[in-house]
Sequence to fold (504 residues):
Amino acid sequence: MIIKQQRFQFEALTVNISDTTAIYRQLENQIRDAIWQGRLKAEERLPSTRILAKQLGIARNTVINAYEQLTVEGFLVTKHGSGTRVTADYPHQNNIDIKINNKSLTSIKKIILSERYRNLSFHELSIPSNDRNSAQPFRANMPEYDEFPSAQWTRLVTKQLRQKPSIWMEKSHPCGYWPLREAIASYLGASRALSTKPEQIVVSAGAQQAIELLAKTLINPGDVVCFEDPGYTHAAMVFELAGAKIVTIPVDDDGLNVDVLRQTVETAKLVYVTPASHFPLGTTLSQARRQALLQWAEEKRAIIIEDDYNGEYRYRGRALPTLHAMANDDRVIYIGSFSKLLFPAFRLGYMVVPSNLVEPLGTVRWLLDRHSSTLDQMVLTDFINQGHFSRHVRKMKILYAQRQEAMIEAAKEYLAGIVEIQTLDGGLHLVGWLHAEVTQESVLRAASIADIELMAVSQFSFKNTDKRGIIFGYAAYSVDQIYHSMKALRDAYRQTSTMKPMNY
Fold:
């Protein structure tokens, strides 16, 4: 497959601030005309909204509005992993009258988005644009669900369905099905050394909803929430939508730099960290940093949100104690999820929260979506209590450790001189650090050609954009897939190394 050369020079786009036409309309009109006149071809890629906004010296939301309108009109399409492109069957000029005939578009334009949404610091969101279920190497954060004990799971589902329908058809408590809360508390005590009561467990629809519940329950407009940089930007955006002011703290090999936190943040409501396996760098927050963070939080009366991202999957050495286990008070809220431990479509997670937060969080959950599926919670309870869950996690730890080793060896064989992938103690992905002469754009372009899914570390950066790394997920892919895809990436990179760079 040969990549198409960029035909249209986006430097030709201009905006006129003295023109009475809105700037986003000027941009819409120029791009639409370029498509109609054949200067922008079908399937041709447009620059990211961030890059084009910087080039034109305008707000990024202005570019987003123009792209969104052209997408609604059928001129552009955004696909996961391939950016925004011109559609193959865009409306032709003699078949459409935007200003007069399209009443539906007029009504859409009248919808006024909230100020918080419009002011959101958009990062590159990986929202699927289709129902493509199969993960392509090297999509990160995907577990190996082909090895999931589906036969045992099916038997447990059948067992529950054979009971009186009223048992699993009834509503459950917004904080979760009580036997599941007991099972989670018992599991955390055995596996993560967390001393907690079932009453402190709040079940959620995955970790992301737990973050949303905390944001809606705890945040007032202007409250400071600290995040790792780079870090989990999707969580930061949820807090930003709730009105929080996001303050970012750099991450190094020992995790969140608490010295910088202490020097730069006078007061904060929350600090969000991924200490067991930092996302996306995969580093572990050191013991000294953990103690310093807890001390800072106590001094500032701040709450720590400990997202135990992939905490179960550690392949070398003993896991460090969780912040929750180290804390002497109710300073730490602990978040976990079953989606990456079982299978992606299973949207159940949990929080361990101070007793005085249980009722407020339950109230917010009831207002939002009432509760998670009672049947799912009942089946998961049996899955944990009968030992299937622990056995599955132990099996996956062995398998993922083997696949991480295969990823490192395959990178040495095929990507030497392009990236250097270093071993991590745990997690579901590795980071490939680019050699000095290699550009991020060239690697992402090669991945697109080879039908390989890659993300850049910079995609999850706020200010700290100097980290030139590519994220390689390995957990969901066999050793053969890893080697085959690494070779395909190497071949595509060689094919495109002399081509003109594309904007990403």
Notes: Residues 1-6, 96-108, 499-504 have pLDDT under 50 and may be disordered.
